[in-house]
Amino acid sequence: MNPIVPLNLPRTDLQLSRKDGEVSVLCLIRRKKIRLTPEEWVRQHFISFLATEKGYPLSRIDVEKSIQYAGLKKRWDIIVYDDDFNPHILVECKAPKINISVDTLYQALTYQKEMQGKIIALTNGLTHTYFKVDQALQHFTVIEEIPGKN
After folding, report:
1. pTM
2. How far is CA 103 from each of CA 17, 106, 109, rounded to the nearest angstrom?
3. Is residue 84 situated within a structural domain?
4. How far apart are CA 64 and CA 30, in angstroms?
5. Which pLDDT tens digit goes with each residue over 5-59?
């Protein structure tokens, strides 16, 4: 499947390269070439969206952050840290052909228990759903958009 499909995100100029028939993208965060999968296409566009549209510095964004949950190694796609380097926004990316579902939300909420972010974003590049998390009340509410960096 061709990972390069139009997304419901601002256009992003990514550095793509091809070697031996495989397309790679220069990751905006890791600054190394990563195999371009449909999910990576979404991830790189969402990172750019967070930086250019929402004002979060790339230095406060991490990708594929490993966590331990129930004895298993899991990974968050994107984490945006606040000024004190605490998790602020947690983003779960899916390939455009994967629907954002209740299962995606459950996956994110499970991981969120470990990370304690204030905002959860679920995206497949076409559909984006955002939640504000109230840790004290163990409650989340749908929000219209991700807040920008203050």
Report:
1. 0.91
2. 34, 5, 10
3. yes
4. 10
5. 899 999 899 999 999 889 999 999 999 999 999 999 999 999 999 999 999 999 9
Burial zone of 45 (CB within 10 Å; 0-12 exposed, 13-18 middle, 19+ buried)? buried
Range of the domain at 86: 16-143
Identify whether the C-beta of residue 41 lies closer than 8 Å to the C-beta of residue 3.
yes
Instruction: Kindly report the number of other CB atoms within 10 A of residue 101's CB atom.
Output: 13
In a domain, 10, yes or no: no
* Residue 84, domain CATH: 3.90.1570
Confidence band of 137 (pLDDT split at 50, 70, 90): low
CA 22, 67, 95 angle in degrees (round to 5)?
35
Whole-number Å distance between alpha carbons of 9 and 50: 10
